[in-house]
Amino acid sequence: MKNLYLIASLLASPIIFSQSIVNIENLRYSGELGEFKSVGISLNGSRGNEDRDDYKLNLSFTKNNEDIESLLTFNHSERTKGDALEDKSSFFHGRLLFKSDNLFDYEVYLQSSKNPFQSYKKRDLFGIGLRFDLNEMSKIGLSLLHENEQSLEGINKKTDRVNLYLYKKIKLKNSNFFSASLFYQPSLNEFSSDYKVSALMALNIPLSEKILFEIQVSSALDNDPPDISKKSNHSFTTNFRYVF
């Protein structure tokens, strides 16, 4: 009953709808063997002074064996006002992790996104680096990435960055768990003036063996944002995810 009350309260709350940071870590099933597929959906709407509908659909596929862990995830978001489509965004992320006998594993990833909610037309990146398992609940990643970004005004910017991320998972009662991810991505050429910082916190509530309810709060800072967009973005989303 407590879980149902919490869910009802959050769904009744106002939603700040934007392309939130994708919770990659919770989709990886790191350390587990097998195939994992899931579909997630988030729906938000309002009626009265303004008729608005927002939705986000997420698909993910993970395949892990004793040597390689792989992940593919895609999501699509749309924002409508009345019968008109105002904006839409998409996100694709692919990642391979190669296990080793060292204190770290090797990983390579690529990502492509289109996000008018955050004032850029397209952002593509490719990265390669190391991942350290401190324990089952804590991870650290260090990599180099190449970023190719195009703003809504058509300005192209290519940047090489360091990517440092930290991940922490905390188990709660009744199989619930809390997770937090922090990313820091400074430019190699302008380390102190051009950097991106993002954080994601998520409360995960299993409703059954197959259905997971997620509450996510994310915040992102771009110290050198595209065009005239603001440096910071914040979002709050609720999501139902079905695992099969």
* Gyration radius from CA atoms, angstroms: 18 Å
- What percentage of amino acids are in beta strands? over 45%
Report how far apart the termini are: 25 Å
Helix/strand order: HHEEEEEEEEEEEE
Number of strands: 12
| Secondary-structure class | mainly beta
Which strands sit side by side, in order, in the main sheet? Answer: 1-2-3-4-5-6-7-8-9-10-11-12
Q: Can you tell me the overall shape?
A: globular
Work out the helicity level. Answer: under 10%
Low-confidence stretches: 1-19
Give a short synopsis of this structure.
By secondary structure, the protein is mostly beta strands. It has helices at residues 2-11, 25-28; strands at residues 34-46, 52-64, 68-81, 84-98, 104-115, 120-135, 138-151, 156-171, 177-186, 195-206, 211-222, 232-243.
Describe the structure.
It contains two helices and twelve strands. By secondary structure, the chain is mostly beta strands. A hairpin with a 5-residue loop joins β1 (34-46) and β2 (52-64). The longest helix is centred in the first third of the chain and has 10 residues, at 2-11. The model is unreliable at 1-19 (pLDDT under 50).
Map the helices and strands.
Blueprint: H1 2-11, H2 25-28, E1 34-46, E2 52-64, E3 68-81, E4 84-98, E5 104-115, E6 120-135, E7 138-151, E8 156-171, E9 177-186, E10 195-206, E11 211-222, E12 232-243
Antiparallel strand pairs: 1-2, 1-12, 2-3, 3-4, 4-5, 5-6, 6-7, 7-8, 8-9, 9-10, 10-11, 11-12
